[in-house]
Amino acid sequence: MRHFVIYLTALVCFILIACSAVMKNPSSPEKDLLSALHKGENYTVEGQRFDLEIDFDRIFAQDSPQSIYVRSQLRFTNCTFKGKISWTRQENRKLHFLKSVVFEDCVFDEEVAINDAVFQSGLQIGKCLFRKSLDLQRNSFLLNCRIDESDFGQDLLVQYSRCHEDLSLFGNNIGNHLLLQAISVYGKSQLSNLELNGTVDLSNAHFHEDFMMDYAKGGKKVLAGNTKFSSRCFVRKISAFESVDFSGSYFLGKRIYTSDDDNIKPNMAGSYILSEAP
Hints:
The protein contains 3 helices and 35 strands. By secondary structure, the chain is mainly β. It is elongated, with a radius of gyration of 24 Å.
């Protein structure tokens, strides 16, 4: 009997110590994410709140002085991010996402800025709220890049990027500017049903396949000077822009342009049109 009491007492103490350790070191979304990133495990989460900043440079600071390879598939659904999400290249380091990155129905309270990264699988953002800007400058997207039906408090920036397949920016509401200067898109580009308070800047871009920007409503300008449209270019039923500039651009496929406001006549000075729509 005495041995049983000693055994029972030891067991209770062990359980209490274990519970205390768990309470002192509770799991958190940030810890789970960091663990998955370092182990290269896929990470899927729904309905979580991330309170801390997610800085990929800091996360992988001790791993390698060279480029960083994220081997985890990342999928976030109905999550809230209270801090910034960031990566900016330093010297020769680049951030490679080897698997798909998906955000659905998420809220971002601070800026999201991923620059000089390579998305080797798809990037998909749908029905999200960005209270500030989404900055995806100088990135390479090897598969489809889709940022659809989302709200942006400030800017959406994808300028100086290279899209090897389709680019979809469909149905977004942007508080300020949509900036796509010097972008190259080798697949189709879909910018229809946009609404924004600022400017759409497509200057010095190259769209290799069909470009569509139907039913866009803006507060300032459409700037598409010195842009090359190698396939069809459809800009139809746009409204509320102050001006539209296609000066110095090349249209090598069928071109259709219409607006709801007769005063929005595009500036075509110095442009080259190979095939005008009837």
